[in-house]
Design a protein that fits this description.
Layout lengths: L1 H23 L1 H4 L37 H37 L1 H16 L2 H12 L3 H28 L1
Length: 166
């Protein structure tokens, strides 16, 4: 069981490492500019298919942009959103969980009820509402994810704080 789990951890770490390397070194790894359009090369299939070209390994989109280059450059915003949203959600949830777990009583009741109410909304519906209120863009996506996910951190930290405080 642990050997199988270790394999999963190593595979996950390898995928994360590859994405991180792509995000950091995109300008050197990318075979083409991801924004360059070539309508004469629009909708090319991947290189391994019958009509594919080696110059566009994953093919091109409907505007003739290289899909591999777009994937490599797409790692940057993906990593920014992932790390920023997780960090912000952890900070908010940890602060509220520590506050509720340490003080207990009325503070704990209010924070716990807030978490219960927040978690009662479907995440997709809540994210749609947040995007409508906050707006679009990378910062808005980070804020929306953090606002949705802080409750998970809050519950765990609150419970552990109560155990340690008693």
């Amino acid at each position: 069981m642990t050997l199988h789990l270790q394999k999963r951890v190593w595979v996950g770490a390898a995928v994360l490492g590859i994405v991180l390397v792509c995000a950091l070194f995109a300008q050197w790894l990318s075979p083409h500019n991801p924004l360059d359009q070539d309508l004469m090369a629009a909708s090319l299939p991947p290189a391994w298919s019958a009509d594919g070209e080696a110059a566009h390994f994953f093919g091109t989109d409907t505007l003739g942009r290289d899909i591999l280059s777009r994937l490599i450059y797409g790692a940057r915003p993906a990593m920014i959103v992932a790390f920023a949203a997780a960090t912000l959600a952890a900070l908010i949830g940890t602060a509220l969980g520590l506050w509720a777990g340490f003080h207990g009583g009325f503070v704990d009741t209010i924070v716990s009820r807030l978490v219960d109410v927040w978690m009662s909304f479907p995440a997709v519906l809540l994210s749609i509402v947040l995007v409508a209120v906050i707006g679009t863009g990378l910062t808005s996506v980070v804020m929306a994810i953090a606002i949705i996910d802080w409750t998970r951190f809050c519950r765990v930290v609150r419970a552990e704080t109560q155990v340690q405080a008693s």
